[in-house]
Specification:
The protein has eleven helices and eight strands. It is α/β, with parallel strands linked by helices. A four-stranded parallel beta sheet has the order 2-1-3-4, sandwiched between helices. It has a four-stranded parallel beta sheet with strand order 6-5-7-8, sandwiched between helices.
Length: about 250
């Protein structure tokens, strides 16, 4: 062809009827997208991820900065399209900013969308599973852990033990060996607890939840597990999903 010539064709447009879930992941997070793919790959749902600026280390001040970006980041998840549910992927960030503030900011650009956060989803999961007493494991530094403890205590959750890896950077948290994480969970003081709560969306806990529940004979709830459970249930995906803890069987 010497001279440009184009044949105009008629496209057949077929829009997906699947519910749309938006995920707001931290710019520093290695884990949450992988966990959504693991759990949702056989479900009739479409997932769209956008990343929010975040600066390590894990401090209250750095968490608060994210609030300024929430509306824009939510807007840029398929601008102009209806999103059915948005998952905000930071447990300790939710505690610092406040879940009401997070919902308010997201609703500025995605009005009426269902918003889930890891800590509020975890509280829902405790209620669903009739969990009143928990042993807590986090990767956070001490000052952040105090905010998690205080938040849970205000929800009338009894904390029987609280353990931490004392890490300050998401890349370190994401690189905690899942088998070491499993061993750590098994060795926690959980005898008097109904369940073990593994906090942080960066920890690779989803991969070992089933084994941890078998080893400890306890419910094991993780941030990403609870967040994904709450988000997909919000769009009426009620099927049992095997391999990621008893929560997905309820």
């Amino acid at each position: 062809m010497v001279k440009f010539s184009q044949t105009d064709l008629k496209a057949r447009i077929l829009k997906s009827s699947n519910p749309k879930i938006g995920v707001i992941a931290l710019s520093t997070d290695f884990t949450i997208e992988q966990d959504f793919r693991r759990i949702c790959h056989n479900q009739n749902v479409d997932i769209y991820v956008n990343r929010i600026p975040f600066e390590n280390p894990l401090t209250h001040e750095n968490y608060l900065k994210m609030a300024n970006y929430l509306a824009e980041i939510a807007h840029n998840i398929l601008p102009g399209e209806k999103i059915d549910s948005i998952a905000y992927g930071c447990t300790s960030g939710t505690v610092a900013i406040g879940d009401e503030k997070i919902v308010h900011e997201i609703h500025k650009t995605k009005p009426n969308v269902y918003v889930s956060t890891p800590i509020t989803a975890a509280i829902k999961s405790f209620s669903k599973m009739r969990i009143n007493k928990i042993a807590v494991l986090t990767p956070y530094p001490k000052l952040v852990n105090e905010t998690i403890f205080n938040f849970l205590a205000k929800q009338d959750i009894e904390i029987t033990s609280f353990s931490s890896f004392n890490l300050e950077y998401d890349n370190d948290i994401a690189n905690v060996d899942p088998q070491h994480l499993l061993e750590t969970i098994n060795n926690l003081e959980h005898q008097n607890a109904d369940a073990i709560f593994v906090s942080c969306t960066a920890l690779r806990a989803v991969e070992i939840l089933d084994q941890a529940e078998r080893d400890t004979s306890k419910f094991v709830i993780s941030s990403n597990q609870a967040l994904i459970w709450d988000t997909i249930r919000s769009v009426n995906i009620s099927s049992n999903i095997n391999g990621y803890g008893k929560l997905f069987l309820n």
